[in-house]
Fold this sequence. Notes:
This is Aldo/keto reductase. One of its GO terms (molecular function) is oxidoreductase activity. With 326 residues, the chain is of the alpha/beta class. The protein has one domain (3-224, 266-298): NADP-dependent oxidoreductase domain (TIM Barrel, Alpha-Beta Barrel), CATH 3.20.20.100. Helix content is 37%, strand content 16%. The chain has helices at 31-43, 60-69, 110-124, 143-155, 169-176, 196-205, 241-250, 252-261, 265-274, 289-297, 305-316; strands at residues 3-6, 9-12, 16-17, 48-50, 77-82, 93-95, 104-106, 129-134, 159-165, 183-187, 208-212, 280-282. NADP nicotinamide-adenine-dinucleotide phosphate (NAP) binds at residues 17-20, 26, 50, 165-166, 185, 212-218, 221, 223, 266, 283-288, 291, 294-295.
Amino acid sequence: MRTRELGALKVPAIGYGAMVLSPGMYGEVDEAQAERALRAALDAGAVHVDTSDAYGPGGHNERLVGRVIKERRDEVVLATKFGLAIPEGEAGRSFPVGYAYGELRVNAEPRLVRGYAERSLRNLGADVIDLYYAHYPDPDVPIEETVGAMAELVRDGLVRHVGLSNVTAAQLRAAHAVHPVAAVQNEWSMWRPVDADLLAAARELGVGIVAWSPLGSGFLTGAVQELGKGDFRHNAPRFQAGNLAANNDRYAPIRALAARLGITPAQLALAWLLHQDEHVVAIPGSRTPAHIEENTAAADLTLHPDTLARVDEALSAFEVSGGTLL
Ligand SMILES: NC(=O)c1ccc[n+]([C@@H]2O[C@H](COP(=O)([O-])OP(=O)(O)OC[C@H]3O[C@@H](n4cnc5c(N)ncnc54)[C@H](OP(=O)(O)O)[C@@H]3O)[C@@H](O)[C@H]2O)c1
């Protein structure tokens, strides 16, 4: 698969987002199915594996990832995050996101950062985290202080590269002045534009961008007609019945364009993203080996400039029902 650079870290253009493998997000998941899916991703070359200490209860996702990659650790670029799975007895600050959970609580105080990393290493059964992110900036802690503590993890060999997730351009600049940031992980997809200032700052500083939910939490595949039990998207305005139907109708021109190109809507969504910048990579999630193969194949697609123009034209006419929040 084509590779790309996130700062000094080389990764495949399409990685794998493991969040989908833990319960509490996309409904229940069978453990054996989850392990099969992750193996399929590694076999397909999606060896940049993205997890977090907050996915699933008690480090479920990290432990699952750790178990599966154990035999193939050297092939894998292992990325995880901290700040949302707050240790008992510690306070968290509310972070103003609207999607799905009501509120997120964050604690990225520097005095907790080493403990977070050590807990993740134990969950993962690993000696080192290749790319370690602050999952969300802590509203009460200057980002420079959080990153200062992360820099000590790099110095002491627990972490190879520093990442930040869900940050602004100003936060990226402030953090990068303390320690080089390899990657910023923010939501970016056909129905969720990236912040233009953040993209400009990342380009200027040589920081890579990891696009989360690059398939719009499944919407952009065209395959989401109704939601099963325990699916977090029930709480997301864009997926509520009337909105979902309207969004699916309005998205028809993009699906038709994919069909004309002989690729799937998921492949068009991923390939389009990779064409936005040479330092963007995508980490789609899937439990279905056939989808994983389809997604990874999108890394090698080259879209003609006319195709990109047609996509942008269709996107500019695509009015999303359900507001700006997921
Ligand atoms: N930093 C953050 O704050 C943050 C937040 C959210 C997510 N993330 C990261 O981003 C990763 C990806 O996000 P995500 O999983 O929520 O959203 P996503 O990748 O946009 O979409 C995942 C959904 O798409 C479906 N899908 C995938 N490929 C498909 C295909 N080819 N055809 C049809 N359906 C397909 C999956 O179902 P199937 O299982 O049926 O394929 C799943 O329901 C996460 O794993 C996580 O690592 C980070």
